Hints:
Elements: E1 26-27, H1 34-44, H2 48-63, E2 85-86, H3 100-108, H4 111-118, E3 121-126, E4 129-135, H5 137-141, E5 145-148, H6 149-155, H7 157-163, H8 174-182, E6 187-191, E7 201-206, E8 213-214, E9 217-222, E10 227-235, E11 243-245, E12 248-253, E13 258-266, E14 271-274, E15 276-281, E16 286-293, E17 298-301, E18 304-307, E19 313-322, E20 327-336, E21 342-351, E22 356-365, E23 373-382, E24 388-397, E25 403-412, H9 415-423, H10 428-444, H11 453-465
Parallel strand pairs: 3-7, 6-9, 7-10, 8-11, 9-12, 10-13, 11-14, 12-15, 13-16, 14-17, 15-18, 16-19, 17-20, 18-20, 19-21, 20-22, 21-23, 22-24, 23-25
Antiparallel strand pairs: 1-2, 3-4, 5-6
Helix pairs in contact: 1-2, 2-8, 6-7, 9-10, 10-11
Amino acid sequence: MEKEKTRLEDVSRALYDIKNPDVFQFKTASGLTEDIVREISSQKNEPDWMLAHRLKSLENYHKIKMPVWGPSLEELNMDDIVTYVRPKTDLKNDWKDVPEDIKNTFERLGIQKAEQESLAGVGAQYDSEVVYHNMREDLLKQGVVYTDMENAVQEYEHIVKEHFMKLVPPSDHKFAALHGAVWSGGSFVYVPEGVHVDFPLQSYFRLNAPGAGQFEHTLIIVEKNASLHFIEGCSAPKYNQINLHAGCVELFVRENAKLRYSTIENWSKNMMNLNTKRALVDKNGTIEWISGTFGSHITMLYPSSILRGEGAKSEFTGITFASKGQHLDTGTKVVHAAKNTSSTIHSKSISKDGGKSVYRSSVVMNENATGSKSSVICESLMMDAISRADTIPVMDIRNDEIDIGHEAKIGRISDDAIFYLMSRGLTEQEAKAMIVRGFVEPIAKELPLEYAVEMNQLITLELEGTIG
Length: 468
């Protein structure tokens, strides 16, 4: 029987489980009806084309069946989910104007400190709406746009209409359709040609209302020869009822541009996290996905890259931590749709106390993707005999002039390794901690420790420091 002192403790959620009273300015009824969708659009005073988009998405939602190939979603009942909660404040551009209870929540999470010390701009969403947004003046002068999606629909309508849900159409799957019908909040970023944003932008999504859903939409366009690092953080307190997250991220990386998109998912264990993220990369462009998945009851998340331009690149780096009551089904998809494209996938997972971690990927080499390369490495570490890790890689190769490889490792911590380290003077818990540190270090070093609040809590403190 495993000794208690060698157990890897769960991520401490004391900070994230602090909840505010469920105070709101407006809230729809629970469930999903045409009247509710129309009410959301009316609340936002949207143009007619967006309402039409929502109603068509609702039609798709009712037609498309639930996915049956991943974790069971039987616990989710949309009749119990509130799809829109407007907090009791409007958008603020000055931190001191944010209501005290909301401001205190984000300050405890370290958002304001990160903005002051390390970030070029911050957006903070609380329930269904962005409540704070700010960006450095010098970026504004260079033509960089960073705003919430509601304002973007009004102020940059021609750009939004051209790109909104074009990469992730509502017909794609059931939860893309749901998102298209009830989306709210999120970020719009536009980086003009030749502009390099030297410090990251970060959006933080906090869901406070029990039994609610969060459906933010992120749309980022990085023009030719430009670059950006964007960080997404999210958390929610724990309730004894299901919450739902079905956001959508659409990334357009133009010729010779570069975008790094870092995500730290730290939802509570009553959350269904059914998110969709997709990037379209043009000639010699680069998309870098950095993904840390630590929370939620169930996650289905597979950031996807479509490499449509010659020489386009995709790099995916991810770590997943699944504990008791968690089924985290994560991975990535890459479509090589042009010559001399390349992709690398490096994924690691830790599972304990009966947690289930599934790595699922798809690499497609189209007929015209000659000279392309892909490397897939996925490694899983199980901390005990009751946990589970699965690797499900799919490779669809449609031409012979490519270079592709896959390597997978699944195992438990070796007793021999622990014994060896103890023979060098380490205690048993120190030895086990060192092995875990070594396992996560190649991934952790790619995560934005100095910028993203969660990583300090979840990697540095929890995975390294709480064994014993």
